[in-house]
Amino acid sequence: MSNRIALITGASRGIGKACALALSEAGARVVLAARNVEKLEEVAGEVRAKGREAFVVSLDMSSPESIKEAFSKTAKEFGPVHILVNNAAITRDGLALRMKPDDWNAVISTNLSGAFFAMQQVLQGMMKERWGRIINISSVVGESGNAGQANYVASKAGLIGLTKSLAQEMASRNITVNAVAPGFVETDMTQALSPELKERLLTTIPLKRFGKPEDIAAAVRFLASDEAGYITGTVIDVNGGMYM
Ligand code: NAP
């Protein structure tokens, strides 16, 4: 993947940060995108300390204007994006009966519409290069459903449909589009869950441990590689066997 440009959304922490470190280790020049630029600079520092290139771009996935701006800045200053990892996401959990329109809209616009608009931004450049990799981070619950997360699950299931459709549209241009569906991974997103719930969740995981951000990054790194060139439109489950 040497010198290819990889843009990772939500690269300031958790799974996105691990993806950025793994891709840069594999030789990519990484563009780190999220809202908190200070945090992104810290990650960029870690990448540069290993002698690799990293750029930082401010991006709000809930805003189509911000997405457009971030990608045109990236194209102008760093070059065409060869690898896009759509990782940024939020949760606003609650039972469907009482879910506020704001909570539905915020999750769908950040997780699903944002990912679609980001993909739109990179397609032309990838078509020109006749090479591209798009990797969408879905979730095990996008496949299984989950009570209390109708908005998040709809966004993650939507990403799987989007992945398959874009894979079909883009295959003739040598652009692959795949999804990775993590199980329970220890990050800020899952930190708020109660110890009791975590204990209960653990009993549903055949491999008997929670995932690490690096477990997800390994699948992303593979899908971004030349070796994965014959894989498109698929969902790789990285969930310890929690859903098969
Ligand atoms: P996290 O620790 O909460 O990090 C989320 C990242 O997304 C942060 O870098 C955050 O940065 C960024 N982000 C949030 N809203 C954004 C916005 N509007 N615009 C731009 N960036 C935004 O989450 P994580 O656990 O690493 O999850 C990463 C991905 O894996 C997500 O797609 C998540 O749904 C998926 N996933 C996670 C788990 C899990 O157990 N952790 C399981 C299944 C799937 P800023 O706040 O600075 O913007």
Q: How large is the radius of gyration?
A: 17 Å
The CATH H-level superfamily is NAD(P)-binding Rossmann-like Domain
Number of domains: 1
**Might you state the CATH topology name?**
Rossmann fold
Helix content: 40-55%
Q: State the strand order across the main sheet.
A: 3-2-1-4-5-6-7
Q: What is the name of the CATH class? A: Alpha Beta
Kindly state the number of beta strands.
7
Terminal CA distance reads: 31 Å
Ligands and ions found: NADP nicotinamide-adenine-dinucleotide phosphate
Category from helices, strands and their pairing: alpha/beta
Can you describe this structure in just a few lines?
This protein is of the alpha/beta class and 244 residues long. The chain contains 9 helices and 7 strands, in the order E-H-E-H-E-H-E-H-E-H-H-E-H-H-H-E. It has a single domain, classed as Rossmann fold.
Fold and architecture overview:
With 244 residues, the protein is α/β, with parallel strands linked by helices. It has one domain: 3-Layer(aba) Sandwich (Rossmann fold). 48% of the residues lie in helices and 16% in strands. The chain is built from nine helices and seven strands; from the N terminus they run βαβαβαβαβααβαααβ. It has helices at residues 14-25, 37-49, 64-77, 101-129, 140-144, 150-170, 188-191, 195-202, 213-224, and strands spanning 5-9, 29-34, 54-58, 83-86, 132-137, 175-182, 235-238. It has a seven-stranded parallel β-sheet, sandwiched between helices. α1 packs across α9 and α3 packs parallel to α4. The longest helix has 29 residues, at 101-129. The model has no long low-confidence stretch (mean pLDDT 97). The structure holds NADP nicotinamide-adenine-dinucleotide phosphate. NADP nicotinamide-adenine-dinucleotide phosphate is lined by residues 9-10, 12-16, 34-36, 39, 59-62, 87-90, 110, 137, 139, 182, 184-185, 187-190.
